[in-house]
Amino acid sequence: MSAHPLRDRAAIVGVGYTDFMKNSGVSTLALALQAIHAACDDAGISFKQLDGVATHRVGDSVQGAVVLNALGMVDPKFYVDQFGGGSASHTVVGQAAMAVATGVADYVVCWRAINARSEYRMGGTGRPPPDVVEFQYQTPYGYATPPQQFASMASAYMAKYGATREDLGRVAIRQRDNASRNERAMMRTPITMDDYLSSRWIVEPLCLFDCCLETDAAIAVVVTSAERARDLKHTPVLVSGAAWGGGHTLYSNHREDLTTSAAAAMSKRLYAMAGAGPEDIDVGCIYDAFTPLVLVQLEDYGFCAKGEAGAFVAEGTFPFNPHGGHLSAGYVHGINHIAEAVEQLRGNAGARQVAGAEVALSTGQSGYVAGSSSALILRKGEQS
Amino acid sequence: MSDVERLIPYPDRDSALWWAALARHEFVQQRCDDCGTWRWPPRAMCSGCGSFTWTWQPAAGRGTVISCIRTHHAFLPGFEAPYFTVFVSIDEQADIVMPGTWHHADPPQVGLRVQVFFDDIDVREGAPVTLVGWQPAGD
User: Domain range holding A25?
Assistant: First the structure.
C-alpha cells in the first residue's frame, strides 16, 4: 500500500505563545497578533511572508478576516475561519497542512485566541449560549455548560467500567506534577489524592480538579511545506497524520453509548495516514478539558483496552500531557497541545522533556459536544 | 422558581410541533414513513433512508437511564443547585437519548427504568412551557 499523499508533506516550523493569564487586559485581536508575531519570529520568517490563515472559534474571538487585515495580508491564498471548539482545534492545522502540501499557500498561520477567563467564559455565565440548534434541548434543563456535558460521559463511563474517582484523580495529580516543571503553567503546586477527593463538587461525578483552567491566552503555529521547512531555523516537525470526524453528537440518533468517543473510529485512519500505531507514539498530548476525556481517549487511541485506562494511568508508563495540559498549564482550547508536541519533538521542553521523543500524538476534544474530533500525529524531521 | 428568569425552549421550524405536543402532555416522536426509523430531535430527513416523509407517532415514554449528573455549581439562572439531570435511552429506539429533569425523592442511577414526567415549568409571560422530565417506572 502506498503512503498517504499527505504524510510528512507539511511541517510545523514556528510556535508562538502569549502568557497564560487570568485577565489579559487586551483584545483577542491583540492576543492573536502577539502569538502570530512570536510564531513567525520562532520560525525565522517575517509575518509578511504569511499567505494563509486558519483559526476556529465559538463566537468568542476575533474574526479571522480581521486578523489577516491587521497583518496587512491583502491577498490571502488560504483562509479558514471555522466554527468549532476543542474538537476543531487540530482540524485547522490539518487543513493548513493540506494547503501547503498542495501548493495552495506557502506559509499558513493557525491560531486560537481567547479571553476565556476575563471575557467569554465557557461556563456560560457571561454570555448567551452558543448559536447551536440543539441547545434548545439543553439550556431549558439547566444543562448547557462543558462540565455538565462531560460529567454526563463520566457518569456513563464510570457505571459501565467500574472506574472510580481515584482513576480520574490520578490524571489530575499526574498533570499537576507535570505542570510543576513547566514555567508557563498557571497551576504548579502539586496536589495529592486527598486534595483531589476533598475538593468541591462542580457537577457530580466531576469535582474542581477534574475541570480545566479558564485562561486568557493565544497560541499560533506556522505551517509550511516539508521542503521549505528543511531550511528554516528549527528542526522541522512533520505532520505525519491529520484526521477529523468520527462521531455523533448526543443528539444525532447514533450515540447510545457515551463511553466511546469519536476518536475510536477516527484514530484508525489517523494511524493509517501516518503509517504508525499507538506503539510508536513517544508522547501524547491528550485533550483534557476534563479528566474523563483523557481516560476515554487513551482507550480510543489504542493505548490500552476499553475500560482499562484507569489502571493504565496508574502504571505510569506512557508519558502524556508533559506540559500539564488544560487542567494545570492553561486552557487554549487544544492548540497548546500541538505547541507542546512541537517543543517535545524539537527536544526543547527543558525540565519536562520526554527523553528521545520522536513521534507525538496530539488530540482535540474527542467529540462529545460537536460530535466530531480531530488529531495530529507529528514526527521529528531533519534540517538540510 | 417562578419569579426567577429561566431560559425557556426556543423552538425552531423543525421542532415547533414537538414542543407544542409536549405542552399538551403528548410524548410524540418523528417516525420515518418509509423505513420506520424513529428520530429525535426533529429533522426534515431520515438519515437511514433519505426519506422526507414522516409521521408524529406517540411513543411509550419509557426508557432506561444511561447517565445522570448532579449540578452543584449554579451556572444558569433559574436553577437552584444542586439538581439532577438524567439522560434516557428510550424504548422505541436505544440510540435516541434524551436529557430530562428528575422527579423523585431518590437519586437517579444508571440502569434505572424510567417513565416520562411532563415537567410544566412556570414562566412569567406567554404560554405554559413543558419539558421532558423522568421518574422511576411504575411497574
Answer: 10-120+212-380
Residues B68, B39: one domain? no
Q: Per residue in A9-22, pLDDT tens? A: 999 999 999 999 99
The answer to whether residue B84 sits within a structural domain is yes
Residue B6 lies in a domain: no
| Helix, strand or coil, per DSSP, at residue A284 | strand
The three cell numbers locating residue A253 = 440518533
Closest residue, chain A, to B41 (C-alpha): A251
Residue B1 counted as domain residue: no
**Residue A369: strand, helix, or coil:** coil
Q: What is the ipTM of this complex?
A: 0.91
Structurally, chain B folds into a number of domains equal to 2
Active site residue A287: yes
The confidence score (pLDDT) of residue B2 equals 42
The structure's pTM equals 0.95
- Asked whether residue B4 is domain-assigned, the answer is no
CATH number of the domain enclosing A52: 3.40.47.10
Q: Which residues of A touch B11 (CB under 8 A)?
A: 136
CA gap A264, B133 in Å, rounded: 32
For the beta sheet containing B28-32, the strands, ordered from the edge strand earlier in sequence to the opposite edge, are B38-39, B28-32, B54-58
Which of A145, A156, A253 comes nearest B75 by C-beta? A145
**Number of domains within chain A:** 1
**CB pairs below 8 Å between A and B: how many?**
123
Instruction: Report the CATH number that the domain containing residue B78 is assigned in CATH.
Output: 2.40.50
Which residue is closest to B63 within chain A, CA to CA? A256
Spatial separation of the C-alpha atoms in residues A2 and A182, rounded to whole Å: 40
More confident call, B129 vs A362: A362
Within 8 A of B71 by CB-CB distance, chain A residues are 142-143, 148, 203-204
* Domain of residue B85, residue span: 60-139
Asked if B73 and B101 sit in the same domain, the reply is yes
Q: Does residue A57 contact residue A92 with C-beta atoms inside 8 Å?
A: no
Taking 50 as the pLDDT cut, the residues of chain A under it are 126
Shortest distance between the Cα of A62 and any Cα of chain B, in A, equals 25
Pick from B10, B12, B79: CB nearest A142: B79
Nearest to A250 among B69, B94, B97 (CB): B97
Torsion of CA B96, B101, B102, B103, to 10 degrees: -120
